[in-house]
Amino acid sequence: MIEINNVTKILGGREILKDINLGVTKGKVFGLIGENGAGKTTLIKCLTGIFLPDQGSIKILGEEVYDNLKVKEQIGYVADQNKFFPDMKIKELLRFYQFTYPKFSIDRFVQINEILELDIQKSVKKLSKGMQTRLSLVLNLSIFPEVLILDEPTSGLDPLVKRQITNLLLEEVEKRGVTIFISSHHLSDLERICDNIAIIRRGKIQYHNSLEAMKRNVRKLQVAFQEAAPSNLKEWPGVMAVEQLGKVYQLVIKDHVQEFEAKLQQYQLLLLEEVDLSLEDMYIYSAGEGLKNDKVLV
Amino acid sequence: MFNIDARSSTPIYEQIMGQIKEAIMRGLLEPGEKLPSVREMSTLLTVNPNTVSKAYQELEREKAIETIRGRGTFVVENYQPRMDEERMQGIKNSLRKAVVESYYLGIGPEELSAMLENAFKELDER
């Protein structure tokens, strides 16, 4: 449904995106995470046809997106900052959407707005940032998109509305097989809803996998040895990060968990247990902030 | 009834599977009872419908539930729980934790065994 092939984008003489390759199949939810300035929004602007990549191609529904109205009509896009015509009232904006998107349905708008409760008599400039995000979400769900591209959609929303919106999105996936591409800092939200995850860092995709495989292949163990710990612990199979607190070692292990545990059995252990490793942990290890070893997910 | 911990290392579909099986064993879901649809479950838990589908498919493969076209998904009439390597390990781990805690509270093996037996009895009585 979404094909990103070898995309490079240069802005202001700097390479913001470097040779990005990603694909999302129909009906899947894809999560993009990365620090501020990693290139998330730039990639999303390429996806929505706002930017033309300097190299490579972006195809949605099998066609190039840039300057392609037919494809763009099928894309719902909620930006991180949603710019509307500020002096328009919401009800005037609805007319605009009716002209622009052939599939726009006012009934659908009314239906979703029952949850989000926007006053259509209000002018756009009087809406708070959270309200503008809500507005953008309702409008873009009302065009019955094939693809939904969401840039930090839940930032600035209260937990109740956030949950309702997430459920609305999931319902679209279940009922209509909508494909969703979502970027967010709220990693625990992504963790619940994504099929696949990619971590972008300094314009490059650093890790890309299904969440399930990610959870299966990367594990965190707590170990304490009766005697002194083996000095070459860091070089053991699959060890990606070691943190020590007194006797206890916290180890992040990738791909070789069984091999690693087998090797541990040769020692007298005071403690061996698995600790939950959330997406947030994985992200932090991969960003390498607290740890010198930052090759966890490479 | 169901509670998903997204931060856990256990994939969400496995959590859903485990909790449905547990609900069946504890009698919260009865043989022949209808399960929520994929959409309902996905909304209930706020998790991806694809994940719920996957859990249902796996449970069907394990013959814990069955889908009847046009009618929905049901708990099978005679569900036979199977020994599961991973869950076995889980039980061992939680027992070990209980033992360590008992040790520090000065509870001996006899006392702990008695507690275990009691717990089993309570289950049988239900």
Mean pLDDT of chain B: 87
pLDDT < 50 runs, ≥5 residues of chain A: 289-298
- In angstroms, what is the radius of gyration of chain A? 23 Å
Main sheet of chain A? Answer: 6 strands, mixed
Helicity of chain B, in percent? 55-70%
Strand order of the largest sheet of chain B: 1-2
Order of helices and strands of chain B: HHHEEHH
Describe it for me?
The complex is a heterodimer of chains A (298) and B (126). With 298 residues, chain A is an alpha/beta fold. Chain A has two domains: 2-202, Rossmann fold (3-Layer(aba) Sandwich); 213-293, 2-Layer Sandwich (Alpha-Beta Plaits). Chain A has helices spanning 40-47, 69-72, 90-100, 106-116, 129-141, 159-176, 187-193, 211-217, 257-264, 279-287, and strands at 2-11, 14-24, 29-33, 55-60, 63-64, 75-78, 147-151, 179-183, 196-201, 204-210, 218-225, 239-245, 248-254, 269-275. In chain A, strands 6-7-8-3-9-10 form a six-stranded mixed sheet, sandwiched between helices. Chain A has a four-stranded antiparallel sheet with strand order 2-1-4-5, covered by helices on one side. In chain A, strand 12 and strand 13 (248-254) form a beta hairpin. In chain A, helix 4 runs antiparallel to helix 5. Chain A starts with a strand and ends in an 11-residue tail after the last helix. In chain B, 58% of the residues lie in helices and 6% in strands. Chain B has a two-stranded antiparallel sheet. In chain B, helix 1 packs across helix 3 (49-61) and helix 2 (38-45) packs across helix 3 (49-61). The two termini of chain B are 19 Å apart. The A-B interface holds A 27-29, 163, 166-167, 170-171, 173-175, 188, 191-195, 211-212, 215-216, 219-220, 273-280 and B 4-13, 38-39, 42-43, 45-51, 93.
Characteristic terms for this protein:
heterodimer; A: 298 residues; alpha/beta; Rossmann fold; Alpha-Beta Plaits; four-stranded antiparallel β-sheet; 10 helices; disordered C terminus; B: 126 residues; mainly alpha; 5 helices; 2 strands; elongated
